[in-house]
Specification:
- By secondary structure, the protein is of the alpha/beta class.
- It is built from seven helices and five strands.
- It has a five-stranded mixed sheet, sandwiched between helices.
- Helix 2 packs across helix 3.
Length: 192
């Protein structure tokens, strides 16, 4: 599967910040690839530049507002379709990490693909590092929230500052928090 395009995402579940989806077709072998979640930040950062040098890739950002307006599934699907469109001249085989292909023709799916296929591992790393860098860069614009530390995920510290300051304009308002007494979970999903 030399020309396989691996696809993975970062930021499906956080309370703030974008969803980032990456697609990667490796052109040269890269040692040390794995699911981004099991690699150290230092290792991910090192691999990030090597992946970009040795692959064809496409990275898509979907904002918190887009997630609120259209739903996480719609944002994932439209990101995957954009990746497939941009990389189709280099690959006719696309593999997504996870258990759904969102009804997309010609998209294979496999749970734990990010730990099994170097192309999906590379996509996982590009998505994670791109998102982490974005959250660190914007952190100074939102000094109360410490986005550089938790990257928008629902840590105790993050929930504490939401309780104190409310949500910022890069928070996902459709993601309701039991910890804040928000009992209705409103995930706006678009049917395909």
């Amino acid at each position: 599967m030399k020309n396989l395009c691996g696809i993975d995402e970062a930021g499906r579940g956080p309370l703030a910040g974008p969803l980032v989806v990456a697609g990667v077709i490796l052109e040269k072998e890269i040692l040390g690839l794995n699911d981004s979640k099991v690699l150290s930040e230092k290792k991910r950062e090192k691999l990030f530049d090597e992946i970009k040098e040795k692959s064809k890739y496409h990275i898509v950002f979907k904002s918190a507002k887009e997630i609120d307006d259209f739903g996480i599934s719609f944002c994932l699907k439209s990101s995957i379709l954009e990746i497939m469109q941009n990389l189709q001249e280099f690959s006719d085989s696309f593999l997504m990490d996870g258990n759904t292909n969102f009804g997309i023709e010609n998209l294979q799916k496999e749970i734990k693909a990010d730990a099994k296929y170097p192309q999906v591992s590379a996509a996982s790393i590009l998505a994670k590092v791109s998102r982490d860098r974005f959250m660190s860069e914007i952190s100074s614009k939102y000094p109360n929230y410490n986005f550089h530390k938790h990257k928008g995920y629902g840590t105790k510290a993050h929930i504490k500052v939401i309780r104190e300051f409310g949500r910022s304009d890069i928070h996902r308002f459709s993601f309701k928090l039991k910890a804040l007494g928000e009992t209705e979970f409103i995930f706006q999903e678009t049917l395909f």
